[in-house]
Design brief:
Layout (H helix, E strand, L loop, with lengths): L13 E5 L7 E7 L2 E10 L13 E8 L11 H4 L4 H16 L3 H4 L3 E10 L4 H22 L12 E9 L2 E4 L3 H4 L4 E8 L2 E9 L6 H26 L1
Parallel strand pairs: 4-5
Antiparallel strand pairs: 1-2, 2-3, 3-5, 6-7, 6-8, 8-9
Length: 236
């Protein structure tokens, strides 16, 4: 039995509310159970120097957790004068994932920055940030298309991510914090449609077999399909 009472292949309740901020070109609040992440997408008519003049667009991301997004208050990283290693790793993952699902030629030579701020954390924050980040990015791109600045949609297939792991000896889908903190194996799966973008898997004091990995992959495909439907419903 999972702590939440969910079935092994059952996702937490998912909701994606769009248009939650006034100024960003694209925004949404994604809720995956008790994990809530605010995602905003901002368009800039410039690109980093290393691709200037290439005709290619660029998608990047920033990620952060609010001080009381967890059970006890954490110190803002700004007060420490630098980002922690976990933060840097996650925002690079988000940027890589969103770029992998973007036709950067069709996007044109501009940059879109996706900011992902964790309001409340209960496991799977990076996966929720990727899933919600794609919705915010899509909304920003739709504004460019409506304004006649893009002739082709550079985001044709949704990008989403979900966590899977081995908890109490069983493969489970969409780990919340009680499961994530005790899982023998933990994995994050980023996908676009049926294709993989990135898989992060590690054993936490245990090992896993090829058969278990295949089971987790199957669970991830099911979860990402559900997330994709939620993304499309949110976009209308």
């Amino acid at each position: 039995m999972r702590p939440s009472g969910r079935n092994l292949d059952e996702m937490r309740p998912i909701s994606i509310e769009t248009g939650v901020t006034k100024h960003a070109e694209g925004s949404c609040l994604i809720r995956c159970g008790d994990t809530h992440v605010l995602c905003t997408a901002s368009i800039e008519e410039r690109v980093p120097p290393f691709i200037k003049g290439s005709g290619l667009g660029w998608v990047t991301a920033e990620y952060g957790m609010l001080p009381r997004s967890t059970g006890s208050r954490m110190r803002r990283e700004a007060t420490a004068g630098k980002q922690g290693g976990r933060t840097v790793e996650i925002q690079r993952l988000i940027g890589r994932s969103l770029r992998a699902g973007t036709d950067r030629v069709a996007m044109g030579e501009r940059q879109i920055t996706v900011d992902c701020d964790v309001i409340q954390a209960d496991g799977g924050t990076r996966c929720a940030a990727i899933t919600g980040g794609w919705v915010a990015l899509k909304l920003a791109v739709q504004k460019l298309i409506k304004a006649g600045e893009l002739s082709h949609d550079p985001l044709e297939i949704p990008v989403a991510a979900v966590s899977c792991g081995i908890y109490a000896g069983q493969p489970v889908l969409d780990l919340d914090y009680p499961e994530d903190s005790e899982a023998g194996v933990d994995g994050n799966f980023v996908m676009t449609g049926e294709k993989m973008i990135e898989v992060q898997m590690s054993a936490e004091g245990s090992t896993f077999s090829r058969d278990q990995m295949d089971q987790l992959m199957g669970l991830a495909q099911k979860g990402v399909a559900e997330l994709g439907r939620a993304q499309m419903e949110a976009l209308g």
